[in-house]
Amino acid sequence: MHFIGMLAFQLPIPVYYHLGLTALSMLPSLLAAYCALNLLARPSITKPRLLIGGVLVGAGIGAMHYIGMAAMIAACVMGVAISGMHYIAMHASVFVDTGVFSAVVVGRDTNQLVWGIVLVTFTIIVLGVILNALVLMHRLYRNSQESARIKQ
After folding, report:
1. What pLDDT digit, counting tens, does each position of 69-82 carry?
2. Is 77 helix (H, G, I), strand (E, B) or coil?
3. By the 8 A CB rule, do 60 and 5 touch?
4. Running DSSP on this structure, what letter comes out for residue 94?
5. Cα 35–41–42 angle (5° rounding)?
6. What per-residue confidence (pLDDT) applies to 25?
């Protein structure tokens, strides 16, 4: 979502994205979400678990932003963009065009990157749905086996 928003943001200077850093920026948020959901999926949700889950998600999102901003290859000054401040920070950003673009272009065409991110996101969603269905089927099977054993 954030990366697509950054692609839609038009600047007066060329902006390229480093493919490796852009891909790497997804990992902290995915790992934080996994850890937080793992904590919250337990039978009882306590306040400490809720707090730890929130901190993990916040840290993952923060790391994703900083790595993602490092993936931008351009001469720009960015405000700190966190949670509810994204749009304000983007509106308040100042970008200076010096007339000389000296950054080394390591990135790829943004269209290729967008389609790559769409493909990876879609794949993760499909795998998540399949995994959830398998877990549900396993639970139903286990419950039916337990019910059959109790009836005997």
Report:
1. 777 766 344 443 44
2. strand
3. no
4. B
5. 105
6. 84
Can you tell me the distance from the alpha carbon of 147 to that of 152, in angstroms, rounded to the nearest whole number?
Answer: 9
Mean pLDDT (the chain) is 75
Contact 117, 3 (CB under 8 A): yes
Tokens standing for residue 131: 């995994």
- Domain ranges for the chain: 2-108, 109-152
The CA distance from 29 to 56, in Å, is 9
pTM: 0.45
Q: Distance of alpha carbon 73 from its chain centroid, rounded?
A: 20
Name 16's bridge partners. 73
Of 42-46, 48-52, 144-148, where does the model show the most confidence?
A: 144-148
* 71, amino acid identity: A
Residue-by-residue DSSP string for 19-32: HHHHHHTHHHHHHH
